Amino acid sequence: MxxxxxxxxxxxxxxxxxxxxxxxxxxxxxxxxxxxxRWRKMEEEEQAMYEMVKKIIAxxxxxxxxWERNLERYPYVGIFHVRDSLIPPQSR
Length: 92
Known about the structure:
Layout: H1 3-68, H2 79-86
Keywords: Membrane, Nucleus, Phosphoprotein, Transmembrane, Transmembrane helix
Protein name: LEMD2 protein
Subcellular location: Nucleus inner membrane
């Protein structure tokens, strides 16, 4: 095996190793970006859920206060009534 052939092989091997390294780096970077996006989405969904729970509690408390003032017939409120008062018909 000649010196030129060995040199060419060494260069090709080095280039392939660099290519694999950068390809792995790009893949890991993409996975990191995807995971950050997914974590942010999960956090937003969790925050939206907490906001909806706060709204539900407020509706139930308001209904109970109205019942205490004898404006409502029953001390409880139906699930569907709460849903209908919080979510517009287009979004259901």
